Amino acid sequence: MAINQRKAGSILSYIYIILSNTVSIIYTPFFLGMLGQTEYGLIATANSITSYLSLLSMGIGGSYVRFNAKARVTGDKEKEYEVNGIFQTLYLAISAITLVIGTLLVLLSPYIFQAKYTENELFEIKCIMICMVLQFAVTFTFNTTAMAIQAYEKFIFIRVCLLVACVLQPCTNIVALYLGGNAVTISIISLIISIITYSVYYIYAKASIHIKFRFGSHNKGLYKSIFAFSGFLFLNTITDQLTFSTDNIVLGIVCGPIIVAVYTVGSNFKNYFMAFSTSASGVFAPQINRIIADDCPQKELDDIFIRIGRIQFYIVTLILTGYIFFGKQFIRLWVGNSYDDAYIIGLMLMLSVYIPCFQSIGIEIQKAKNMHKVRSVVYLLVAIVNVIITIPFSMWLDGIGAALATLICMFFGTVIFMNIYNYKKVGIDIPRFWKNIARILPGIIIPVILETVIIYFIDINSYWRLLLAALAYCAVFFISVWFFSMNKYEKGLFTSPIKKIVNKLRKNTT
Prior knowledge:
- By secondary structure, this protein is mostly helical.
- The protein is 85% helix and 0% strand.
């Protein structure tokens, strides 16, 4: 049953990625049109501040599955209940701290943003932040229950809940806005949906996996192990927050809500980009760990790094070049000319994660070799530098300046440093990797040149023209890389399923 859960969960995960991004693309123009730039900027600003409350989890969520599995493998139910009780105790403490710190942030918000916001806007930000703080408190309170469902591999239930919330949230938001709601109304709806979702999780966990908690444990060794394991996961959480959430706070302080709204639209494209490009790396983690555990030659790891890296390169390059050609026209059709800067912001943020997206297998290799700690520390330092230079860059070029600061810092941290570290310390054959990537380039040149000519002569002023142009580009891209870039293995990924279907049809007809 667990295997079926994993397969179905994987399929539902891809469905969720596609559906959530599609819903977001369709929903955003309606949302922005009815809500307005200023109100949208208020939500983005409040979210950027309160998102730092996620740091209070200290990365311990990533360790629950490990400690739960260690308890369950012995068959000792009391030990499992003790683990549940310890994590629940930690999360209840975190929830209480969240309410205290969140209250302080709400009280301080008028002083942080008073220079660029009206009195009414400051009041709305406070209301929005109250809802978001309460939402974090609810999440932390029920986090052990949600993670227990995950640990028991009830993936279908989790993914179905996510799919329902993915559709329910925008539908209720649109209805509320039609009835005269504003940014505060949207925040209240989000809080209510969160409470309902976690209540459903708790009811399901009690009924399906019979979750129980044993409180009052004084197992100091277990507490110590949890925090030791979670430490570098916590650093990664801090890094992500500093890198991708600080920009909106800085822009809110020095530029105001409209610039925040424009920046948020641009940064959404980076999120879509990463969601579609990095899904392959985690699937190969077990294989990588097995190769290292069996003390197999490093060449096997290099082969996986290159093989998956090439496939990811096709995906991210198609998306990136497609955005370069059609992104500006799409944004104008999508949310209007007032968001033109979002195109440049989105491009810079996509470029900042472009190379890491097709080298993400390297992170799995580092983890398997227990060599990921240096990466966590260096990335944290790079994120701090990013925060420092974002302030003057934002004063200079508004949202584009903030995105430029992120691009510069990510280049030195995730590209220059990571390639040197993977080559010198982790032992990955980076020169061989880049030689393989270079062999793909001839197939990229033809569609890029052809599309440059098409864009010059054709005015894309409707969704239909945009769709046809994008489909034509995808077709030309695929044909070109098939003949000039793909190797036998990559072509086999497409031809093998087709051959299997043809063979089955032949058997059925004979």
